[in-house]
Design brief:
Length: about 290
Amino acid sequence: MPWFSYHGGHSGEFCRHAKGDLQPVVERAIEAGFTHYGLSEHVPRYRREELYPEEQDLTPADLERIFEAYVVRAQELRERYADRIQLLFGFETERLPPSEWASRMGELRQRHRPDFIIGSVHDVDGTFIDFTAEVTSALAAQLGGNEALQIRYFQALSELVTTLRPEVVGHIDLIRKFDGPSASFSPRVLAHIEATLEIIVAAGAVLDVNAAPHRRGLGPVYPLPEILALAHRMGVGVTLGDDSHGAHDVGVGLDACLRAIAQAGYSELCYFTREGGVVEKRRAALDDVHPR
Ligand SMILES: [Zn+2]
Ligand SMILES: [Zn+2]
């Protein structure tokens, strides 16, 4: 009976917009009955203009040091708790800096040998699209409207998936974060989403069905029902992500993710398990997926 989440495990120890240390996140995951729990902290950013708002007193060099400390701690916890839970050590990508993200992400992967990565895009042309509604709508206006912004976002995500071939694609429709509960995409944008899904299948990646918007009252889980149903018809695998940013978030909202997955027509989910140091992708029947 596997119970899993791969996108999450952000903690205040290594990320300013999360809360508390990493160890309580792991202890909460054990309490909540997880058999497999992914730790996927944000990668460092390499230029001053890419610091998150709460990081303004830090430098890119600080972020690199903090990330190195995360890598050490995540691997240490993976071993320390191995008899109680399978922790998988990973990270969540950025498509930054715009001109050298591919080599930066590749270097991180080469150096740290993560069990998995979450391939996420949080920017369009170097501007974060998940900070505030104002910043995102100003960017949309600059690019010729919301549809143009959405298309740029999905093209950027496609490029990231092709280049990095992540195990999991993070919150595929993050671009609708500020569109509220009635968010939807035009047929023109949906054609681009379909192209992204084709790339995801070809890369052998699976979708992160992500609880964050539901938990924060911003709308349905990522992806929207229409995208999830399309993904199911196209044979794209799905997995779970609580996108936790502290122990209080662990597992919260995954019930909504499972409902969305069932409604889209799926009868099984993918999960990742580490056997003898090697990560394997497996499938579990939807009915068998729940806390132990
Ligand atoms: Zn975060
Ligand atoms: Zn993210």
